[in-house]
C-alpha cells in the first residue's frame, strides 16, 4: 500500500493534472475543424473548486466496494474517437484501498446529448476556472459550450500493482434535459470479464464542453490599450 500511495501522490495525480491542461487546450484548437467534438471532465479541475466533496467521483457495488475515479478527455461522437485518461482507487467495504492506478479510454461506445447550458460556467456572476489557468483561464472555453449528456466509454484500468482490466465507464452530466431513466449525475462502471457492476452513484460531478468552430482573427486580437491611438498611416503624395 505504501508503494501505491507514493505512485498516486508523486506520479499519477500530477500526470492527471498535466493531462487536464493539455487536453483542454487541444480541445480549443480542434474546435476549428470539428463541429462535433467534446472535452469532458470527471470530478477534476475546476469542478473540484465548485464542490470539493464531489471529487473524486465515487460509485458503489452491491457488495459495498467502491471505485473512486477522476479524469479528463476528448471525444467525437460522429467519428467514434476518444482520448481520455484519469486515476482510480478501488476500496473495500471498510474503506481500505485494494488497488490504485490510472485508466485510459479505448473506445467511445455511445453519446446521448441532453442539451446545451450556456450559463453553466458562470457562478455568482463570475467566470469559473480558477487561478491555476492564470490570466488566460477562460481562453480555452471561449469556443466551448457546456452541455449535458451520457457518454459510454470502453476503458482499460492499469493498476500500480497487478493486472490490467477492461471495463465500461458511463459518465452522466445533468445539464440540459436529463431523461428520467438517467436521473443521477455521476459514473457507473461494469467490468467486462467478471460482469461486476458498480452502479450506485455516491458522489461526483461531470461536465461536457461542446467545442464551437470558428473564431475570427479579429476576435482573437487583443483590444487596444485604453487612451492609446492607432499609429497614423502615411499619406501618399
Which of globular, elongated, flat, extended, rod-shaped describes the shape?
Answer: globular
Report the major sheet.
10 strands, antiparallel
Helix content: 10-25%
- Radius of gyration from CA coordinates: 20 Å
Q: Which residue ranges are poorly predicted, with pLDDT under 50 across at least 5 consecutive positions?
A: 27-35, 123-141, 215-225, 230-237
Strand tally = 12
Mean pLDDT across residues: 76
Q: What is the overall number of helices? A: 3
Give the termini separation.
81 Å
Walk me through the structure.
By secondary structure, this protein is an alpha+beta fold. It has one domain. It is built from 3 helices and 12 strands. The chain has helices spanning 2-30, 47-50, 217-220; strands at residues 38-42, 57-61, 66-76, 81-91, 97-116, 122-123, 126-127, 144-159, 165-173, 186-191, 197-203, 206-211. Strands 1, 2, 3, 4, 5, 8, 9, 10, 11 and 12 form a 10-stranded antiparallel β-sheet that branches. It has a two-stranded antiparallel sheet with strand order 6-7. β4 (81-91) and β5 (97-116) form a beta hairpin. It is globular. The protein starts with a helix and ends in a 17-residue tail after the last helix. Residues 27-35, 123-141, 215-225 and 230-237 have low confidence and may be disordered.
